[in-house]
């Protein structure tokens, strides 16, 4: 009796405190740049959880002077390659693959995309119906929030996105959610307002570490990671780099050394890359390396 109680206690202790905090999550944005990239071009390691993130669905008209549509999203990614039947195939071939879509992004038809709701209720209602339709058509699993410019205050952003995420999860339309902030005063104000009220609805923080200066050092990168972990307290902050010309810590300058440090501290929750479109010409070298780092035991 006493010994079985002890065993149960030990088991509970182990589940609560000893299970390693790092996970094997690899995510990659795909489809924003019309580079004719397909899911099957990207190497997929069977020993990681792999998320493709379609870029982007945007609530703007597709015109030469695009205007906001108050939450009525349409898919702007490369739909030629990244279509429902290709999604079925890649998931059938790789049971560890899930597919998400990202909302908004930086720009559409060379104009900035602003978060511009007419009102909270109307935006949320339009967003729920248009997003549900796209998720069902493409059989998507998750959603990522990537507004980068704002025509509304932080509270309005928090309420709109919070209500949207609540509904999508409650109705099991998606099974995971993420946000993609970066270090900029306005961006952080909006996302931190969302985080403080609705952080419990957000599974991952795809922090855009590549929005920091070029030639970020390993030491600076680790400092930035701590700063953002404190900002998004309790969140799974994923580390990131880009394969385009943007800044941050690049693989050739020690990105994977920083990953090793975080891994040894049980803080490596996953890695994401912007973007498959940019990686295609170099043969996805760093996609392979990122997944190897995540897949191998400590
Ligand atoms: C797109 O890529 C496929 C191979 O993945 C190739 O067969 C096709 O010709 C390419 N199309 C263009 C327009 O480059
Ligand atoms: C936007 O319009 C262009 C030009 O007509 C077209 O090639 C593209 O497929 C359209 N995109 C969407 C998302 O409708």
Question: Any descriptors?
Answer:
binds 2-acetamido-2-deoxy-beta-D-glucopyranose; TIM Barrel; eight-stranded parallel beta barrel; alpha/beta; 298 residues
Task: Describe the secondary-structure layout.
Blueprint: H1 2-18, E1 25-30, E2 49-58, E3 74-75, H2 84-93, E4 97-105, E5 107-108, E6 111-112, E7 114-115, H3 120-138, E8 142-147, E9 149-150, H4 154-170, E10 176-179, H5 185-198, E11 204-206, H6 218-231, E12 237-242, H7 255-264, E13 271-274, H8 276-279, H9 285-295
Parallel strand pairs: 1-2, 1-13, 2-4, 4-8, 7-9, 8-10, 10-11, 11-12, 12-13
Antiparallel strand pairs: 2-3, 5-6
Helix pairs in contact: 3-4, 4-5, 6-7
Bound molecules: 2-acetamido-2-deoxy-beta-D-glucopyranose (NAG) (2 copies).
Task: Please characterize this protein's 3D structure.
This protein is an alpha/beta fold. The protein has one domain: Glycosidases (TIM Barrel, Alpha-Beta Barrel). Helix content is 39%, strand content 19%. The protein contains nine helices and 13 strands. Strand 12, helix 7 and strand 13 (271-274) form a beta-alpha-beta unit. 40% of the residues are buried. The model is unreliable at 10-22 (pLDDT under 50). The protein binds 2-acetamido-2-deoxy-beta-D-glucopyranose (NAG) (2 copies). The site of one 2-acetamido-2-deoxy-beta-D-glucopyranose has 3 residues, from loops.
């Amino acid at each position: 009796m006493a010994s079985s109680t002890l065993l149960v206690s030990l088991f509970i202790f182990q589940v609560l405190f000893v299970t390693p905090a790092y996970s094997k999550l690899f995510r990659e944005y795909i489809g924003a740049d019309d580079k004719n990239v397909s899911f099957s071009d990207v190497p997929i390691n069977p020993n990681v959880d792999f998320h493709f993130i379609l870029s982007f669905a945007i609530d703007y008209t597709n015109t030469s002077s695009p205007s906001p549509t108050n939450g009525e999203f349409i898919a702007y990614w490369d739909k030629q390659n990244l279509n429902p039947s290709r999604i079925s195939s890649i998931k059938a071939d790789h049971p560890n693959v899930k597919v998400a879509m990202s909302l908004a992004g930086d720009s559409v038809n060379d104009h900035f995309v602003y978060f511009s709701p007419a009102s909270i209720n109307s935006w949320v209602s339009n967003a729920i119906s248009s997003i549900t339709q796209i998720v069902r058509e493409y059989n998507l699993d998750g959603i990522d929030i990537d507004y980068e410019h704002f025509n509304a205050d932080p509270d309005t952003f928090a309420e709109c996105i919070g209500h949207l995420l609540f509904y999508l999860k409650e109705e099991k339309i998606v099974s995971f959610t993420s946000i993609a902030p970066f270090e900029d005063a306005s961006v952080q104000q909006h996302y931190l307002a969302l985080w403080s009220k609705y952080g419990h609805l957000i599974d991952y923080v795809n922090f855009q570490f590549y929005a920091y200066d070029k030639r970020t050092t390993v030491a600076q990168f680790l400092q930035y990671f701590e700063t953002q972990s404190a900002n998004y307290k309790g969140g799974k902050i994923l580390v990131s780099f880009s394969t385009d010309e943007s800044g941050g810590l690049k693989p050739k300058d020690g990105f994977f050394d920083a990953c090793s440090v975080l891994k040894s501290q049980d803080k490596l929750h996953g890695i994401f890359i912007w973007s498959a479109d940019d990686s295609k010409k170099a043969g996805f070298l760093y996609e392979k390396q990122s997944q190897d780092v995540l897949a191998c035991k400590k």
